[in-house]
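Posting here for the record, re: S-adenosylmethionine.
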Amino acid sequence: MADRPSEFGHVPVLLERCVELLAPALTRHHPDGSGAVLVDATLGAGGHTERFLTELPGLRVIGLDRDSGALDIARDRLAAFGDRITLVHTRYDGITDALAESGYAAIESVDAILFDLGVSSMQLDRAERGFAYAQDAPLDMRMDSESSLTAADILNTYDEAALASILHRYGEERFARRIAKHIIRQRARAPFATTAELVELLYQAIPAPARRTGGHPAKRTFQALRIAVNDELDSLRDAIPAALDALAVGGRVAVMAYQSLEDRIVKRAFADAVASRTPVDLPMELPGRGPRFRALTRGAERADAAEIERNPRSNPVRLRAVQRVEHESESQRQGTGKGDA
Ligand SMILES: C[S@@+](CC[C@H](N)C(=O)[O-])C[C@H]1O[C@@H](n2cnc3c(N)ncnc32)[C@H](O)[C@@H]1O
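Prediction output follows.
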């Protein structure tokens, strides 16, 4: 089975469903995918991309990842596909430049785009990267080891209000202010260096009754720091509209999110994309002001029990997808059309 663990360490989530959702856009020109381009915006170990390239022997893929280690793994795995795959080391909000580098326009040029958000199993399993609270390691958490800010930098230099805000906004941690206070007190004695030091502090800062509910006490703080270190939400907020713009008419985008903050961004961007631009008080759709996209999923789709059993990392997934149905008129693009006011 394609979604069983492989030598590459990451099991692709909702693989069949992603193929089912995106293949119609990739086979519009030719049944074997010739003439079509898929952007895998989160290439990771290349599991989803390998399946698309295998199933559609004419397809080309542009694979993006901010983690050069992931790109190395994908390069090895996908070597047999030769120049049908182009790898680009970038954040996904750099999709417009990545397309230009690969010879494609930023507007209406690609047939499908896949986002499989978050960290990969390889990133979580490599203890030295500091993503996992269960393993002692340096407080790093950078997805791109060439970027400069680490989790230790945040813990050792941000003021109390900024720390509390990160924990509250990105971790939805109800003891954010209390934890921030403990961090300031602790780092005055010695700066934070390891994940174990942070986990120990969280056991002290979070009251015992609260520790017994709501999962591991470190879960929310680690999520918050990871989001802050990698600027994950801003990156996604910019990437989704750029991806929607890049889709040709008939093109499709699918996004898998694993935590509610990211899923909310996707949900809002898609709700906006499928909304009519005709003023609500008009009885009929104005030409050029109808929805530019249509929803392909009703709400968010989840993994079924069998997949969760085989691959527990699929448990939190929320999949949403839309299809471009209309060109964006010049007045819409420039925001000058009627109804924009
Ligand atoms: C869940 S994994 C993708 C796994 C892949 N679909 C597979 O089947 O092997 C997510 C990947 O997205 C990358 N990533 C996360 N945030 C990113 C961003 N803002 N820009 C580019 N890549 C990002 C991570 O480095 C990671 O390799």
